[in-house]
Amino acid sequence: MLLTPCGRRLLPLVLLCYRQCQAPAPKVLFLLAHKWTLKQSVKRIKRSVPQETLYRSVPFDMEAVEMTSFKRPHSEDDVANVDEIKRQKISEESKTGSKSEQSIDIVTEQPGKPLLEDKKDDIILNEEGEEEDNELEESDEEGDPESFADMMKHGLIELDVGITKFVSSHKGFSGILKERYSDFVVHEIGKDGCISHLDDFSVPVDDEDPSEEIFTVLSNEDKQHLEELQLFKNKETSVAIEVIEDTKEKRTIIHHAVKSLFPGLETKTEDRDGKKYIVAYHAAGKKALANPRKHSWPKSRGSYCHFVLYKENKDTMDAINVLSKFLRVKPNIFSYMGTKDKRAITVQEIAVLRITAQRLAHLNKCLMNFKLGNFSYKNHPLKLGELQGNHFTVVLRNITGTDDQVQQAMHSLREIGFINYYGMQRFGTTAVPTYQVGRAILQNNWNEVMDLILKPRPGAEKGYLVKCREEWAKTKDPAAALKKLPVKRCVEGQLLRGLSKYGLKNIVSAFGIIPRNNRLMYIHSYQSYIWNNMVSKRIEEYGLKAVSGDLVLKGGTAVHIEEADVDDYTIHDIVMPLPGFDVIYPKHKIGDAYKEMLAADNLDISNMRHKIRDYSLSGAYRKIIIRPQNVRWEVVAYDDPRIPLFNTDLDKLEGKPPPILATEGKFKALKMEFSLPPSTYATMAIREVLKMDTSIKKQTQLNTIWLR
């Protein structure tokens, strides 16, 4: 059995069992481990290295361990729980025999089942419309295993990006965020101010909707042939489907099924050798796939079907890609108001062009970790940034703070708020921060831009990226380096492709191949770096009060506070500029500090226009203190770290009773709720409560047991 793919996943656990039982493992197991590229596991076992290294010896995605754990575990229960998680994952894979993309120490949750750990922790929490590179595909190729703490010793900490101050005076305490991804639930707040909830699976009644039979009338083989025809994957110009029970009603259902399930295809009935066939063919070439047929959509119905998407452990773009794949349409017919976190349960509104609610509802039967509901037809799509914010329900498990500490922390969050820093995820996770690339772009130093993106770096990286960077450093040959990448859609692959096309003397054009949002991410990161540092300096210099020379917004326009008007404003009114050509700066020491910091980077604060229009920074204003709305909290006790501590929308729809909590449990958890405006980081609110560094580097150092 160990020769099978499933056995490959089981092998490290088998070796671990021998280790725990203090029994010698058969030599054949070590030979198999060597065969399956687990040399590091064998070496560490032979050296009798402590058991935690066995878990780290299994190949894993370095992004998998971007923990948001804010506690140093101090009991063996934590280790036992991780062991149980791994056993459950391996048990599931051995039953299904599926080729999971996740390594054995990473587990996903099924609705209604205990929630376990997932593969990646993206903690962009409330940053709607922000640029993210979600296009990097997974690869089976991994780098040599290494201690994650060692890998992250080159990473950033909060001090590196200007995050240094707190506004509250309470004593901090520790807790674990996202021990389960159901501990972090995000509900979108629409432009009407209403919080989105999934509470209705019913489909709007429409006489023009086809019958449910369209989903079952076609065989799997028919569907495969039709999909290949639709996507131009074969040389055939048509697909013929024999009508077994030849009646007009049956033929009508098949016509409807093909047209509804495979946009871009038309059908006709033909007689062949005395038998009836439904022949499917392309209506209008390749454009028909991207543009759903207008003539098949009732004029009385809104062109867009709006629905609420409930998803677990998927970011918004991944979810839309999955939906488009199952619906056999292009992803660009979907629209939304903001992107949501992956490692969470999120609820948001989505709109899709000319796809019926009936078809969407059918996906509930075949998709896991997704639910669609609250359907309605409207005449408009959704636009990025239209939302008013997000409402968060967060559980911090195993907290160490006293009841008095918790009350002080939460009262401060509600009454004062938190510093509106840009969170750590804004600046990347590798040894080369994104703001450094942004600074080089603004300096027009394109050789530096190329070098920063492609050069080798210490720390957490996928194996194929390491090989790509080494090849680049050795040869400076973009084509040779590109061959080391199994996937080409990461930023490095796109830049190398551009360099292959335009040459090393035209880096600007080569860099332009990278999608615009990803390019702008770098300079926005630099703006955020400046803003964080200036806000820390402002609070250190003047405290939490308005002073003469500060900036406030009046009707969308920034104005300086005059000495006579200082008493009319509080710290919650003050804004600070992100540097650009269309902003003004404070008229006190901080205004000079902006100039000095930019001058140190060889940038002129009075000339933020770039030779390339895309990289000209107009600037913006951002409040320095955010006071969350609708703040509620409670401390709950529990014994089992795997049980949920509150019900989700899906739990309520399925009629599940609320979780039964212990009155005197082994552990304490802080359940908190709050609402935040767009482009605000929930991690910074939680940082203010716990008073802990939220960087991966610090959290890895604090949580060595977590990796065991």
From TrEMBL:
The subcellular localization recorded is:
Nucleus
Alphabetized CDD domains for the sequence: PseudoU_synth_ScPUS7
* Catalytic activity entry: uridine(13) in tRNA = pseudouridine(13) in tRNA; a uridine in tRNA = a pseudouridine in tRNA; a uridine in mRNA = a pseudouridine in mRNA
GO biological process, alphabetically ordered: mRNA processing; pseudouridine synthesis; RNA splicing; tRNA processing
**Key word Isomerase present in the record?**
yes
Q: Where is the composition biased (Acidic residues)?
A: 124-147
Q: Which PROSITE patterns does UniProt cross-reference here?
A: TRUD (PS50984), UPF0024 (PS01268)
Instruction: List keywords of the entry alphabetically.
Output: Isomerase, mRNA processing, mRNA splicing, Nucleus, Phosphoprotein, tRNA processing
Question: Does Nucleus show up as a keyword for this record?
Answer: yes
Region feature (Disordered): 87-147
Name all TRUD domain ranges. 417-627
One Pfam family name is TruD
Stored InterPro entries:
PsdUridine_synth_cat_dom_sf, PsdUridine_synth_TruD, PsdUridine_synth_TruD_CS, PsdUridine_synth_TruD_insert, TruD_catalytic
Gene3D superfamilies documented for this protein: TruD, catalytic domain
Q: Where is the composition biased (Basic and acidic residues)?
A: 87-98
GO molecular-function terms, A-Z: pseudouridine synthase activity; RNA binding
Q: Which GO terms describe its cellular component?
A: nucleus
PANTHER family (alphabetical): PSEUDOURIDYLATE SYNTHASE 7 HOMOLOG (PTHR13326:SF31), TRNA PSEUDOURIDINE SYNTHASE D (PTHR13326)
Q: What does this protein do?
A: Pseudouridylate synthase that catalyzes pseudouridylation of RNAs. Acts as a regulator of protein synthesis in embryonic stem cells by mediating pseudouridylation of RNA fragments derived from tRNAs (tRFs): pseudouridylated tRFs inhibit translation by targeting the translation initiation complex. Also catalyzes pseudouridylation of mRNAs: mediates pseudouridylation of mRNAs with the consensus sequence 5'-UGUAG-3'. Acts as a regulator of pre-mRNA splicing by mediating pseudouridylation of pre-mRNAs at locations associated with alternatively spliced regions.
* Family recorded in the similarity comment: Belongs to the pseudouridine synthase TruD family.
Q: How does it assemble?
A: Interacts with SIRT1.
Protein name per UniProt: Pseudouridylate synthase 7 homolog
Please give the organism: Chrysemys picta bellii
